[in-house]
Amino acid sequence: MLKVENLEKDFNKNKVLKGVNLELREGEITVIVGPSGGGKTTLLRCISGLTTPDNGSIIIGDKYLYRNGKAASKKTEIEIRKNIGLVFQNFNLFPHMSVLENIAEAPRVVLGIQREEAEKRAKEILGFLGLSDKEKNYPFELSGGQKQRVAIGRALAMEPKLICFDEPTSALDPGLSGEVANLIKKLSLEKSMTVLIITHDMTFATQVADRILSMDKGVLKKEHMYMDKNPAVLIN
């Protein structure tokens, strides 16, 4: 589903990514852990198309988003980015829109789907997320966990093949990490979604991951930890 080859990125002569290589299999939940400043967020931003790498390649499915540091054509980039969902650390919901509108907006604007069809899709997603009774509410009326689910729903509305999470539990009360872990596992199992997560929360990582990778100083370490999800116990 995703292949990253020799990815490099500098900021003001500071090499943040040092030849990163990564492969994600379809339907797999991969979590990258590591200290702040290690390059995790930059890697995620490159994969999601928000940051341009200086060198290396990113392949989504069978198409290059970047090849040896050169971006795909604008048309190809748009097609590829439709297959990538990103859930931001602080949710970034539109405060002036209802829950339903937050989820239906991108399919209407980006994909050109008619309002009726976009709202029908949004209602199905809210049902999947257990938020059918919140469609008319606004973000300020929701709990942190509910905002997180709406942010996930907004990403799902684009029907991506890969969904990326930037520190999905950092803005939540500690007791909600298990709820988010269960929802992400549900995405993988029921929607065959490929998931990439970056987090500092090792407890959350062991709850949700098929595979845990470690990243520090711009290097993705080769050692992998594979998880037995039921129960979530580390295995070799």
Automatic annotation (TrEMBL):
PROSITE patterns: ABC_TRANSPORTER_1 (PS00211), ABC_TRANSPORTER_2 (PS50893). It is a peripheral membrane protein. One of its GO terms (cellular component) is plasma membrane. It holds the Pfam family ABC_tran. GO terms for molecular function: ABC-type amino acid transporter activity; ATP binding; ATP hydrolysis activity. Residues 2-235 form the ABC transporter domain. It is found in: Cell membrane. Keywords: Amino-acid transport, ATP-binding, Cell membrane, Membrane, Nucleotide-binding, Transport. It comes from the Bacteria. InterPro entries: AAA+_ATPase (IPR003593), ABC_ATPase_HisP-typ (IPR030679), ABC_transporter-like_ATP-bd (IPR003439), ABC_transporter-like_CS (IPR017871), MetN_ABC_transporter-like (IPR050086), P-loop_NTPase (IPR027417). Belongs to the ABC transporter superfamily. This is ATP-binding cassette domain-containing protein.
